[in-house]
DNA sequence: CTGAAAAAATGACAATCGTCAGTTATTGTA
DNA sequence: TACAATAACTGACGATTGTCATTTTTTCAG
């Protein structure tokens, strides 16, 4: 799937297209986008964009996962979102005309396409369906973040871990969850040591199996119960 | 300022208009909006819209403050945002075509105008400047919420209190902060008792004065220091 | 103005969770 | 394949913060 050559990615046969806002909302010809975009291969742990910089365009994930994170006062990462195949990232700051408030970095090898700011804004202006899709996306995410804030504020670390594992299982789909303990702790909002201890608890409770880095959920029911609701 | 008659609020002489998205982004005649909107007086602690219901339009605050909050699993409120004069609320779920994920309730007596869903969407479609303003607003708020999540996850309650007091002081402007201890605790994400204890600490440290319900910040510098950054 | 209801405040106590310091295991590369 | 670097894990300990129970103060309606 991964194309290190940077060359032959095409929207028309993009495997991520069906999950993408382009696939869902845009009647425009895939080849229209094809002509505008460039594509690139990213190594693991490579930055896509950085907090403080100004957006030059948007990124469309063809393959691989990307973490979106903010930094707290002492520089500690807080992962806000993990984007997967088909997602477009980096367009929020384009609309707000502010520098990025978050950074993005690959969690694994990725193929990522890039569409220029002007081209993308032009598409938005001339294509109401795409535009509505984007607005829908922005609004949906605002709702998600309200829930995220509420979980952070009201749930215990144990509950948040259960909740986050459900989300991660969904993101990773058929694959096993594959994150460093530090990244996972930064997603849940806790110390790495606390996360490790809780994972051990969950393992002993028969909720998951730990294959070093990779996690296999074996009892999702229990997770739902612990997460609450 | 408050108009209990529901009758004579007009966009052209709306005192909140300069702070509003209409004032900032929309070249359209104020009277255009005037014809579409209806206005109403709300008592203190009156719901504006409720989580789970579907939006019928948007609300524009002419006078007074409104809390936007989600509910955790045990029904505990988490205040996500406090909206003041000039703000438009309730339009996010209109775009996402989902039921509201948050509720809104007045914190004091309010005058609130209402614009119908169809009328508002029509304005958005036909007025690119307004539309861009809305998109800018949505994007900006997403950035703010990323920071909110980070603060919740990484700061201590004491730091969050300091941080929140700065935000609240900004929202209340010339007025003194005027919230129940419970609402304030639900904004900061802590127990009411913890908040009360910390407010006492802050008072003893000469940071603020407590006039029963109302809080007067006397040393903002110290707050910044405690809040971090 | 008064009494009931709501809100604010206080005290005691325990559990969760973060920090620090150190060990073991894994990974990637020369 | 070995070794250096990184990540995972363990233990000890204390501070922060939530909970529960109770008292005091404030608010508001009649």
Intertermini distance of chain A: 37 Å
Tell how many strands the DSSP assignment of chain A holds: 11
What profile does the largest beta sheet of chain A have? 4 strands, antiparallel
Helical region count of chain A?
Answer: 9
Global mean pLDDT of chain A: 92
The CATH architecture name of the largest domain in chain A reads Sandwich
Helix content of chain A: 40-55%
Strand arrangement across the biggest beta sheet of chain A: 1-8-3-6
Provide the β-strand percentage band of chain A. Answer: 15-25%
What's the short story on this structure?
Chain A has 229 residues and is of the alpha+beta class. Helix content of chain A is 43%, strand content 22%.
Salient structural properties:
homodimer, 229 residues, alpha+beta, Arc Repressor Mutant, subunit A, four-stranded antiparallel beta sheet, 9 helices, DNA-binding
Descriptive report:
2 copies of one chain form a homodimer. Chain A has 229 residues and is α+β, with helices and mostly antiparallel strands. The first copy, chain A, has 2 domains: 17-144, Jelly Rolls, CATH 2.60.120.10; 155-227, Winged helix-like DNA-binding domain superfamily/Winged helix DNA-binding domain (Arc Repressor Mutant, subunit A). Chain A has 9 helices and 11 strands. Chain A has helices at 21-25, 30-36, 92-96, 117-126, 128-154, 157-172, 181-188, 192-204, 220-227, and strands spanning 38-42, 47-49, 57-63, 66-71, 77-83, 88-89, 103-106, 110-116, 177-178, 208-211, 214-217. The structure holds a DNA duplex (30 and 30 nucleotides).
């Amino acid at each position: 799937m991964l194309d290190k050559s940077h060359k032959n990615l095409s929207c028309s046969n993009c495997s991520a297209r069906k999950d993408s806002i382009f696939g869902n909302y845009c009647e425009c010809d895939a080849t229209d986008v094809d002509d505008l975009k460039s594509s690139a291969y990213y190594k693991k742990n490579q930055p896509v964009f950085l907090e403080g910089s100004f957006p030059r365009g948007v990124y469309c994930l063809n393959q691989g996962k990307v973490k979106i994170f903010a930094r707290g006062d002492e520089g500690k990462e807080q992962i806000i979102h993990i984007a997967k195949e088909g997602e477009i990232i980096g367009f929020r700051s384009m609309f707000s005309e502010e520098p990025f408030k978050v950074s993005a970095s690959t969690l694994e090898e990725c193929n990522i396409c890039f569409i220029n700011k002007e081209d993308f804004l032009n598409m938005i202006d001339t294509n109401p369906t795409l535009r509505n899709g984007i607005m829908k996306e922005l609004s949906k995410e605002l709702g998600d973040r309200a829930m995220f804030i509420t979980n952070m504020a009201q749930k215990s670390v144990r509950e948040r871990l259960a909740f986050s594992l459900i989300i991660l299982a969904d993101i990773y789909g058929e694959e096993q969850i594959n994150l460093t303990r530090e990244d996972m702790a930064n997603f849940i909002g806790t110390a790495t040591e606390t996360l490790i201890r809780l994972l051990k608890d969950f393992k002993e409770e028969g909720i998951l199996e730990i294959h070093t880095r990779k996690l296999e959920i074996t009892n999702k029911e229990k997770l739902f119960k612990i997460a609450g609701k």
